[in-house]
Amino acid sequence: MPRTGRPKTELVLSDEERETLLRWSRRAKSSQALALRSRIVLACADGVDNKAVAGQLGCSAVTVGKWRGRFVQSGLDGLDDEPRAGRPPTITADQVEQVVVATLESTPKNATQWSRAKMADRSGLSRSTIGRIWKAFELQPHREDGLTLSNDPQFVEKVYDVIGLYLNQLEAAVVYCVDEKSQVQALARSQPAFPMMPGMPEKRTHDYLRHGTTSLFAAFNTADGTVISSIHRRHRAIEFKKFLAKIDTEVPDGLEVHLVCDNYSTHKAPSIVKWLEAHPRFHMHFAPTYSSWINQVERFFAYVIADLLQRSDHRSVQALESDIRNWVKGWNENPKPFIWTKTAEQILDRCRELVLRCESG
Predict the structure, then answer these.
(1) What is the CA angle 325-331-333, rounded to 5?
(2) Model confidence over 144-173: pLDDT tens digits?
(3) How many CA atoms lie less than 13 Å away from 339 in the CB half-sphere?
């Protein structure tokens, strides 16, 4: 006879328990462990056996059995971690939850974000306790990251198009990411810098004199990391057409040329369209709006800024342009291609998560 195992105590949820478990499993900043335990109990309450629940949630059947049994024995309280040896905690779970919820769902009076001092005043806990709670839940109210979601109606199609170029090797073709680093300023500090010394960083004045601007046009080869560059004082369609002509000259005949560009009007000007019609081996691929992160040449520009421009001291545009040319020449002596790993599906899934969090927040 087949083994049936020990009979399991029936797991039945009240409406209140089900509502609480659903809230714990869905709230974005719940403890991941508590969220998993809540999903385990919800699945078991639907009559799914332990092995099937484990397969659905990506955990072991032993884990499912443990939290099923804990809930049957102790209800919602059974989903908390068991107390460990040592001094009993002086901060209750309710106090911790109040701090976390207040941090995520409110702001202090006359301020845009919480500080440890403000949260300590609100909660009655010490600043160090607030710091430990925030650290445990990975909360950093003082930090923020930039985020602009694309409103491009062809966002999905453009993501698949550009990522397809990065991940699929094309025969008899080369892929370049193209853009302009415009308004690069020749800045001269008002006073000489004090050099770095042991125990003291380099010191620079905050003020400077402007000596003009220039623009760096760059085409980054996604396969080998080499860069075709050109420098112009302006960045109109006429300069962009000259840059396309330079790319045409430097890329061997017989190779198709795929260019990844942003949606800057210069890249779509009538003169550019006419030039492209006369050079059918060139193919333009436009990145979605507000999605500069998808264009690899932007990462190249970040290296230019960090290695050259951030601490530059140029007293003429000619000196600045000379240094930029030398820097690009040095880059091409030891080029570094960027290894793209994210598929279009992974990117779109991440974008959906961000949209849902923005809508729910």
Answers:
(1) 105
(2) 877 677 777 888 888 888 998 898 888 889
(3) 1
CB-based contact 273:189 (threshold 8 Å): no
Helix residue ranges per DSSP H, 196-316: 237-250, 270-278, 297-304
Give the whole-angstrom CA distance, residue 324 versus residue 304.
Answer: 8
Q: Does domain 155-191+207-345 have CATH number 3.40.1190.20?
A: no
Structure tokens at 202: 């380099």
Q: Decide if 258 contacts 175 (C-beta within 8 A).
A: yes
Please give the Cα distance from 271 to 282 (Å, whole number).
15
Q: Measured between alpha carbons, how far is residue 234 from residues 1, 3, 28, 168, 216 in Å? A: 85, 80, 47, 35, 9
- Main-chain phi, psi angles of 148, to 5 degrees: -135, 115
- Residues 101, 133: contact at Cβ < 8 Å? no
- The residue ranges of every structural domain in the chain are 15-79, 93-136, 155-191+207-345
Tell me which residue of 207, 186, 225 sits closest to 334, measured CA to CA: 225
Q: What is the pTM of this model?
A: 0.65
